[in-house]
Amino acid sequence: MLSVAHHGLVFFVLTPPAARLTRHTVDVPVLFVQATRDNVLTPSLSVGMEDHVPRLTRREVNAGHWALWQTAEAVNGHLKEWFESVVFGGGGKSQL
User: Fold this and answer.
1) What is the pLDDT of residues 12-35, one digit of tens each?
2) Has residue 96 been placed in a domain?
3) Considering the entire predicted model, what is its pTM?
4) Does residue 83 lie in a domain region?
5) What confidence tier does 7 reach under pLDDT thresholds 50, 70, 90?
6) 13 to each of 8, 47, 75, 83, how far by Cα in Å?
């Protein structure tokens, strides 16, 4: 018998990325760090994300699926820059 998690994964894999979010908009600042060599969450899966996440900031790291371990310094640099510019707006006070 297949688990609910398995069915969810099958839906996720078989559904085109844009179709998964057709009825939803995320209207808060979002940082998306794409691992360019990820064979699981491939860069093509995020195509069209901006249509549903208007306040999206994209960054990339040259890493596989385990980007936080493989390129920790680069990921942390993107996080630091995003928090300083988007979340704190350069003034030290949250803009959320």
Assistant:
1) 555 566 555 556 788 899 999 999
2) no
3) 0.70
4) yes
5) very low
6) 9, 14, 26, 31
Look at the chain and count its residues: 96
What domain range includes position 73? 4-87
Six token digits for residue 58: 């994209």
Number of domains in the chain: 1
- Our measurement of the distance from residue 95's CA atom to the centroid of its chain's CA atoms, rounded to an integer in Å, reads 20
- CA angle at residue 13 from 65 to 74, to 5 degrees? 20
Question: Does 21 reside within a domain?
Answer: yes
Residue type, 85: S
Give a yes or no: residue 95 inside a domain: no
* Token reading at 84: 């300083």
Q: Express each pLDDT in 35-70 by its tens digit.
A: 999 998 888 889 988 988 999 999 999 999 999 999
- Distance from C-alpha of 12 to C-alpha of 86, rounded to nearest angstrom: 30
